[in-house]
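BACKBONE STRUCTURE TOKENS:
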Amino acid sequence: MEPIADYAVLGDGRTAALVSLHGSVDWMCLPGFDSAACFAALLGTADNGRWVLTVPDATDVTRTYDGDSFVLETRYVSPTGEALVRETMPLGDGRADLVRRIECTRGHVDVEHEWVVRFGYGAIEPWVNHVVGADGEEAIRAIAGPDALLLRGDRLPQASDHRHRDEFRLDEGEAVELAVTWTPSWVEVPERLTITDRIDATRIAWGLWARSSPYEGSYREAVVRSLLVLRLLTDIETGGIVAAVTTSLPEDFGGERNWDYRYCWLRDAAMTLEALLEHGFRDEATQWRDWLLRAVAGDPADLRIMYRVDGGRDLDERELDHLPGYAGSRPVRIGNAAAGQVQHDVLGEVMCALAMAREGGLEETADSWSLQRHLVEDLVDHWREPDRGIWEVRGEPQHFTHSKVMAWAAFDRAVRAVERYGLDGPVDRWREARDAVRADVMEHAWDDERQTFVQSYSARHTDAALLQMVQVGFLPGDDPRLASTIAVIRDELEIAPGLLRRYRTERTDDGVSGDEHGFLACSFWLADALARTGDVDGATAVLDELVGLANDVGLLSEQYDPVGRRMAGNLPQALSHLALVRAVRSHDLASRGRPCDERLDPDDPDPARGQKEDR
């Protein structure tokens, strides 16, 4: 079992794969993010599917992405020589491919190659045979039902005990190129495309995207990698933004806190959009807004908190009993039952993101504003009801403070849309609702004895989601109640310097057994809140700790275990990366004496542009 941190991600804007430090592609869903996996060893064993290309006797293995791209370079040093593997999922040619090239750069190396295909999340052994395409190239083809996977290259492995294996030697200067291609099982074998040129073109394409909004502020490497991750998690065709590329990587090792994050949460996607907008990526904002209009079309009362990548609503949760789970963490789940929950905070995040898009120069359409009006009007009628909250508890609904605050934010952004941009709407009704929410929160969520806001109206404890109160402007940054709430949150939930739990599981009825580790997004919210309340040094100290928790290629999972010094939860996690980007922006603004909530300049949304500060 490889540590979660030992995985790097490859992606082509439609799906993604995880490859281990030692060259095993242990997770890959084709053709889309939420399709069934054909390599699922990540949640089981080699018999559940993997693609290995490695130097087995290597004494040292190092890797990096080639510049600002998702072209992965892994260097193997063995007793007899060195080898370099370059691999990626090519962009821009409409193919669902993963390509790999191994070259001996010194001496000679012995190479191991293994290809084990299991469709249906590792459950279905395919029919495998050799085929010849129209271009005369030989390939190995695995077929089961609607899916086909082709393996082509300079040297093909041989069938052996329900898998394909090969071992060979490369001398200095020799190289082998390999490609895996998904197709529907009924189509002809497509032509073989070049590999080296596609790797180079993909590196250039990622780099051009990153440079389209150059960032030169603090923690540059972490910020740019995080922005790239957010783009990788955005479907290039539909505009849907997935929360992660994996399912069931555990929050509690050996426990049941295992969830499928390969879907589009409105909340996470909206916050991703804000992070991208703050760095000038407006095309993504337009694409996501169009996705939103399609996904939520219909009765506002039917709003879901998450959707499939194509906007579909079929996310029924089920368990895969044939997979033992990562580190024995069961059940392995696909789908997500939280899709049917009521979470009143979601519209607040969506309205905040769309308000930022307006500030950044994105013009409202009649349809987009009509959708917002209808959703806000529905919230007016329901915000007083309990809900499941941002953490999607499976216990009883409660009056979560964070949900009420975000309902306030939804009304506030609707009011601003009318007042600042002249959009049409019942602004008096929305102002009244906004004021009523604020009064309700101040009456029921403030614990005067402990000088803190609390998780829910019936609680005496905090929740790290309360840190977002300052982000959305519920209270000004210099309000002493925010500073005291931050202090109590740290006292209750900080388990290592700067690292917060979401909440104490023994005090919160979340409906699931077990415990969990430090939640990285909440920890970045701490840095953000410190910056917004004037403690720049405190924000710097937290960011220094958290940025250092990324793995060797800059990826962050959902959680981090400071005792075991290991990542936990799904990888890479959009919420962690977007929270990093936004916290650094607040840090940069605050360190220059500028307000962290200053409105975007459509011509220059990046406050750090041209002001380099290395860390």
Remarks:
- The first strand starts at residue 7 and ends at 11.
